[in-house]
Amino acid sequence: MNRLQARTIVLLTAATAVVLSGCGGKENNAAEPKERTPSPVTLRLASKGAAPILDAEFQQVVGERLKAKYPHITLEYLPETTGTKLDELIASGNAPDLIVTNTGALAEYRDMELLFDMEPLFKSRNLNLSRFEANYITDVRNASVKNELYGLPINVSYHAMYYNKDIFDQAGAPYPTDGMYWDDVLNLAKKVTRNVGGVQYHGLDPGYTIIWMSQPLSIGAIDANDQVTINNDKWKRVFELAKAIYTIPGNELIAESPKNQFMKSKTLGMLLDLNILTQLVEAEKDGLHWDVAQYPSYPEKPKTYGNASVSTVIVSKTTKHQEDAVSVIEAMTSDEVQMELSKRGRLSPLASDTIKKALGSSSPGLKDKHLPSIFKSKPVPYPISSPNRGQGESIAINKFKEYLQGTIDVNQALSQAEEEIKKKLATIKGAK
Fold first, then answer.
1. Residue-level pLDDT at 230
2. How far apart are CA 253 and CA 202, in angstroms?
3. Which of 28, 133, 272, 321 is the most exposed place for a label (fewest CB within 10 A)?
4. Using one digit for the tens of pLDDT, what is the confidence trace for 186-223?
């Protein structure tokens, strides 16, 4: 080997060593990329008509989930009181990060341009919509004219028939059973409506006067296009049935609320209402002996009750913390949170049979109740409704009360309701 060849080999060897040394240095000394710690953030949540849902128990269960999975998020619940009411916050330009309300109110906030289609965000976070009961997702979509998804359901208020066992025992009448029709319940109410020792016991109150009774028939006072739809045979049937209930001697419509009659004065035999299980557990401590049966049906609409009052959580379009707000929705709708809430007596919007069967299982006050009766009926699909729906229903109730008092007949009640609703809609549209 001559001198030039030897020098070349040495240089190549040295160069190779440097390259290998450099590569080895990168493999051994390069720092692993650190996961960025999210900055602490406080999100504000305001609600409308959802205060009973977002109580201390709900906040505790959701708070534990957030602390475990998203500890950087603090969720501030704004009370539905003066100064922090949802509509006041929006009017002052101080919209919250998250909103909880029922599906029927979503159209109102859509028109305020506070909502947006969240489905792409949910997909990016792998939030599986098939986990939910399909009809509840449809209820949320119905608030959009484009089939958009503005949020996700977090709680469902079903319809059920609650009864006071003592009143039935005192009257020697059988308890309500599952599968009853309205006529059956009406006849049973007559048996337990009595005056005993000067105390008037009422047999039945259908809840929200005529409104919940009308919903299984898929009728409304106003349709989605603000057309008045109250003057027809279906509404006539509802008015007449409600009058038959409230004209049972001793079962008149009175000032005391149906819930107070049932839970406080304990003078109401049967109450048709939404999910009031947690309130009933407390009332039982004060001497109320109650149970639950399937909501009554119309023969042509068996196993069907009215609109499910679905509480929906949405992210405000104005929030500066969109991803964190979606994390809150993820926590609220997680199997873990929904299972715990179900155990405590709250009906979940998830389709899981396991979660459904757990209803009330951790509450000693619910363990011996006929809770499976609740699931024997399904809600009628929530209609695509007008933001003015409530205005029409208020007029319908007032006209029903005039009919009940005997100042007008049923045909006059419906005809006058139709005219008054039309005038109200004209006034609303003229003010815009």
1. 98
2. 9
3. 28
4. 999 999 999 999 999 999 999 999 999 999 999 999 99
Residue 362 has pLDDT above 70, yes or no: yes
CA distance 301 to 298: 5
CA 235 to CA 238: how far, in whole Å?
Answer: 5
What is the token pair recorded at 168? Answer: 């039935």
Q: Does residue 20 register a pLDDT over 60?
A: no
Phi-psi region for residue 389, left (φ > 0), alpha (ψ -120 to 50) or beta?
alpha
The bridge status of strand 73-77 relative to strand 41-48 is parallel
> Which tokens hold the place of 318?
């104005």
Round to whole Å and give the CA distance between 351 and 343.
15
> What is the rounded CA–CA span in Å between residue 224 and residue 243?
28
Distance from chain centroid for Cα 88: 22
The pTM assigned to this predicted structure is 0.82
CB atoms within 10 A of CB 390: 16
- Listed residue (120, 82, 84) closest to 99, CA to CA: 84
Could you read off the pLDDT of 395-428 as tens digits, one per residue? 999 999 999 999 999 999 999 999 999 999 999 9
For residue 327, give the nearest of 138, 141, 121, 146 by alpha carbon: 121
pLDDT band at 2, cuts 50/70/90?
A: very low
Judge whether 41 and 73 are in contact, CB under 8 Å: yes
CA distances from 78 to 46, 66, 210, 239 (A): 5, 18, 33, 39
Ordered by where they begin, the domains of the chain are 41-158+308-351 (3.40.190.10), 160-305+384-431 (3.40.190.10)
Asked whether the predicted pLDDT for residue 224 surpasses 90, the reply is no
Q: For the beta carbon of residue 184, count every other beta carbon within 10 angstroms.
A: 14
Question: In which order are the strands placed within the sheet that holds 309-315?
Answer: 73-77, 41-48, 98-102, 309-315, 151-157
Q: Give the integer Cα–Cα distance in Å for 315 and 155.
A: 16
